[in-house]
Amino acid sequence: MHRTLTRSRRIFALLACAVVPAVFAHDPADPHAHHHAVKPQTTRSTADYDVPNVKLTRDDGRTVELQQELADGRPVVLNFIYTTCTSICPLSSQTFADLQEKLGAGRSKVHLVSISIDPEQDTPARLREYAKRFGAGPEWQHYTGTLAASQAVQRAFNVDRGSKMNHTPVTFVRIAPGHDWVRIDGFATADEVAHELPQTIALR
Predict the structure, then answer these.
(1) How many CB atoms are closer than 10 A to CB 34?
(2) Which of 38, 53, 141, 146 has CA atoms 20 to 30 A from the CA of 114?
(3) Hey, is 124 helix, strand or coil?
(4) What is the torsional sign of CA 153, 156, 162, 167?
(5) What's the number of CA atoms in the CB half-sphere (13 Å) around residue 168?
(6) 171 has a pLDDT exceeding 80
(7) Mean pLDDT of the chain
(8) Confidence band (pLDDT; 50, 70, 90) for 199?
(9) 47 has which bridge partners?
């Protein structure tokens, strides 16, 4: 599975390389963001996003408040996915899987968060199965909830594109509560994401 996804990722990246800067560039209308390029395939910016006080359902079936869920002191790496996606989401989730491996003994010190943009279909059971496909450990949790709650989170992070078919790859990193979020538009690699994390976290 890992080899297959990695090979698919390389093929897709080669095909997308020429269009990613134009298609997946960060929305210039976002008033919070300050931009500078990381590399042609991705754009890095920082923003002070307000996490909405909504309730989501974790893949273990527990209902949680998102603000509290992200406020346990650990760095947060966050993305948006849906389980029937066959293009962007598997690549983004593979990056999270690679990041888990890269973190090594430090993986429990980072909270990986994947929020469904298709909550009406993505039940906790479906999310558990999806997480299993990518070898998600206890530090990587998947969330669903009501459509209104999911849309509220998408709007807060400026990723709501009106339809799941129009979503784009975006990864968010916050090193601690009260800090700005780093936003990486495009297909971020595990190395790029790890670079945003505190140096005190163990990396392989």
Answers:
(1) 11
(2) 38
(3) helix
(4) negative
(5) 23
(6) yes
(7) 85
(8) confident
(9) 181
